[in-house]
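hi!! sorry for the late reply, been swamped w classes. u asked for the two structures so here they r. pasted raw, havent cleaned anything up. first the sequence of the first protein and right below it the tokens
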Amino acid sequence: MSAASSAMPLDEMPAGLPPDLAWRWHKQRRKAARREARAARWAPWGGHPLRGWRLPVMILGFIAWWPIGLALLALFFFWRPAMACSSANWTAPWKARMREAMEQRPWSAPASTGNVAFDEYRANVLARLEEERRQLDAQAAEFGDFVKQLRRAKDQEEFERFMQSRERPRA
């Protein structure tokens, strides 16, 4: 390999390649790009779960006793520390996407469709639904208070029965 070809960037196709070699070069570049993309997908979790020593260990586990192989498979794929939900690498992209979505379109103000009549109709329906939701929340709170009073009354009745049974002289 000459010094000139090693200094050339990999994304640039060498000039003057015959069509069949150009096709092979493009095919090789696509393969390399897929390989890099695959490696990038697994990079935040420490690489592919079955790379290196993990696959032979799992196969030996299946050979020794199948529950061991199954446990190792679960360990390598699901119970790795890098896959924990508390890991910053795992939750950061999700939180960033949620933050972006909330900033772009708040839930209380839907985007306009461009049709004024429909937007007014939608605003009226949403306002009516919001009022119904508030009424249902108020009714749920009232029902919760009612249930608390019933429980308190029942508890008071049971306590009074207990106290009366203690006051009776024993025969």
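now the second protein. again sequence first, tokens right under
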Amino acid sequence: MSANSADAKQQWEIVLVKAGRTKIRYPAELLADDGTRVTVRAPWAGDGVRDFGFVRFEPGDVFTEYYWRDRWYAVKEVRDAEGTLKGWYCDITRPAVVAGTELLVEDLDLDLWRSADGTAVLRLDEDEFAASGLATTDPVSAAAAENALDELELLARKGDFEDLLG
């Protein structure tokens, strides 16, 4: 083993699936995996700028992403190219599945945004979730997704949000 091999960053592939199809696939650097939570870091993987009105994701942004094997969400800390915190974008997902260095996450449409200063906590895409039909086709998963959104919103509003990621 060479002296540099211990310093090598392990690259993982993040695969986000939505409605049975791969929505996006991108490389990420593994920061930690404790058997329950996987933490990775990746640059903004989208094309160009995505302006949501309350935040802009753009080239140079860096996402530190937290995925759980036993929770119905993923939390993404978003920083600009200079390292200034923009906030946290949370995807409601099925628990993450890890296969080798691939992390598979199924997006369930619901999202939550919390601004860096905590003054904006926004529930997003509830209309898309309703239109997905999950409540009819898989009511147990739909209830788990709604509960996960409620849990994240409560943490974000109480100021305990950062503790979740510590």
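hope this helps!! also noticed smth abt the second:
The two ends are 32 Å apart (CA to CA).
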